[in-house]
Amino acid sequence: MPVALTALMTDAYGGAGGIAEFNRHLLDALAADERLGVTALGLHGERTAHPVAALDWSIPANGKLGFAGAVARSALVTPPQLVLAGHLHLATLAHPLALASRARLWTTTHGIEVWRHHAGLGRGELAFGGRRLDDRLLARSSLVTAVSRYTRSRLLAWCPIAPERVELLPNTIDLGRFMPGPRPLELEGKLGVRGAKVLLTVSRLSPHDDYKGQDRVIPLLPELERRVGPVRYVIAGTGSDRVRLEDVARRANATRQVIFAGFVPEPQLPDYYRLADAFVMPSTGEGFGIVFLEALACGCPVVAGNRDGSVDALADGELGRLVDPFDPRAILEALVATLQGGRSHTEPVSGVERFGLERFRARVRDLVTTLLAMRMTERRSRWQSRPSSTNLPLR
Question: What confidence score (pLDDT) does residue 393 get?
Answer without folding.
Answer: 42
